[in-house]
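Protein modeling request. Please complete all fields; requests missing the sequence field cannot be processed.
Requester role: graduate student
Desired output: 3D structure, token encoding
Chains: 1
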Amino acid sequence: MNGLTARWAWEAPADGTVFSAAGAWPLLAFLADGAGGPARAELAQALGVPAEHAAAAARGLLTALDSVSGLDAAVGLWAHQSLRFREEWRGALPVGSHGVFGDDLLTAQERLDAWAVERTGGLVERMPVTLTRDARMVLASALSLRTTWRQPFTDTMLAPESGPWQGRRLRGLHRRSVRPDRVGVAGAPEGFVTTLTVPGDNGIDVHLVLGEERMTPGQVLSAGVGVVERTVAVTAGGALPFGHVGPGLHIESQPAVRPEPIALDVRTVAYEVRTDHNLLALPALFGLTTAVRTPGSHFPGISDAPLAIGDARQSAVAQFGALGFRAGAVTAVMAVPGGVPEYRYETTVVRATFDRPFAFLAVHRESRLILTAGWVTEPVPYQGR
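Delivered output (385 residues):
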């Protein structure tokens, strides 16, 4: 699945995107189970597993995802009332996933849209495909995830002094910790990247990846996949020398009134990314080159009726903030010695700043499965005065 993520990443546009190969994979797997001829071989190649094992792998994936706190996955199947399935294929799908629609397409579409809303907690507001008079079957998968940072960020205002976001007032996020190992520099074939791991409290981490300015979104995302899979070596922040050591990353010495451990100072931006993908625009990537050809009967294992793929799409959303929604107020009076503090010590600060377009990958920590990935170009504007 991470291989599909890496290949999809190379197609990432420069104007921002979010996509989920882990969301598309089980759908393609169930299609492969019922496909025949060249369509079956192409789907198996896209999946990276033999077609005869695809359905079992998809069921195992869905079960594993549902066992993770904050992660929900589902598959839905709807068929026109005239279509008859092969029971061995339909039986391989999760129990309760099958529905029927007739000629009242408006009502049927409303049911499909409601399923998309329910299965994603309202993030995706409608089914990516629209029913037509020719429609005989809709097979859909849904994936939603949520996590709370172990250490929250503080909302602030970020005004980049250079780069594509120069001159803009952005909703910035800041936090300081004593975990310099959360950030590091990796040397990918296409250039150097700075990678930051933001741990969630339920086994899901988000990796932010900032590349050299000359690198494309696909190159930065590909490097991020390599970091997650540990095929690209990372030098942790605590082992880096002083100075400018990576994109947006500086190691410096600062005066301190008492001995302090190495600190990690992070500044980034809040963002929301929404993207609709037409999978048939890249049919070879998803193993659908033959499956779309008509006339043709590419899925003999699904039904005796000839079937081909008429539409395939994905709608994806990603939101990154301080903690979600939080409200609070603090009032404090601090007493200090009446005089100039004596700076007798020095502390090392690892300062990471993500103030220009960067990549992100949401990852299941234990398995290193990439759940969602994307490219940020439009951060949330700052709303304060």
